[in-house]
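Saturday, quiet lab. Running sequence design on the structure tokens for the scaffold JK sent over.
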């Protein structure tokens, strides 16, 4: 049985978003090691702008997914399909909560919120306690998202080891012969 592939739009959105999230995680992890100064400030500004971009891309992905539901993979057991569905929902939830909490954290600082240099509205006012609260939530969500991403990749590897390669369904091009 040849499983149905994801449509080209979903594949493109998935990989662009995955690369963007990987860059955001790398930048986010590097920020704490930077001393105060212009390099740290510009790195934080880039992280914020890319985070907003990731959030906007997520909205596009969700709209696309609504009109192009993912194809079922009948090779997986009912339990595996259910776990995959819940895992994807958890990832999507964290892809919403992580940038939202980062935006809210930044909204409660004295600094203007910028998107690639352009000032955008903030949802708050200078308040160190709220900044710290949303900053802690942002860190928690980001670390949880990282764990789920590792689990997601681990599940792909596990399926491959079990002889049920699921990755070709999400690879660009004509990988596998499951082209619809």
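Result came back. Writing it out in full:
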């Amino acid at each position: 049985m040849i499983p149905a592939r994801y449509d080209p739009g979903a594949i493109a959105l998935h990989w662009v978003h995955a690369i963007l999230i990987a860059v955001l995680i790398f930048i986010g992890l590097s920020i704490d090691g930077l001393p105060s100064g212009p390099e740290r400030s510009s790195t934080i500004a880039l992280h914020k702008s890319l985070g907003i971009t990731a959030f906007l891309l997520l909205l596009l992905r969700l709209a696309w997914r609504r009109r192009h539901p993912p194809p079922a993979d009948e090779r997986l057991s009912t339990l595996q399909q259910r776990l995959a569905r819940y895992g994807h929902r958890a990832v999507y939830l964290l892809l919403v909560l992580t940038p939202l909490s980062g935006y809210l954290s930044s909204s409660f600082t004295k600094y203007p919120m910028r998107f690639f240099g352009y000032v955008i509205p903030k949802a708050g006012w200078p308040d160190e306690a709220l900044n710290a609260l949303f900053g802690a939530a942002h860190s928690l969500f980001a670390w949880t998202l990282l764990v789920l991403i590792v689990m997601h990749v681990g599940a792909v590897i596990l399926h491959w080891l079990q002889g049920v390669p699921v990755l070709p369904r999400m690879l660009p091009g004509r990988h596998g012969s499951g082209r619809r």
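Notes for JK: The chain has a mean pLDDT of 94. The domain at 8-164 is CATH 1.20.950.20 (Fumarate Reductase Cytochrome B subunit). Ask whether to fix the surface positions before the next round.
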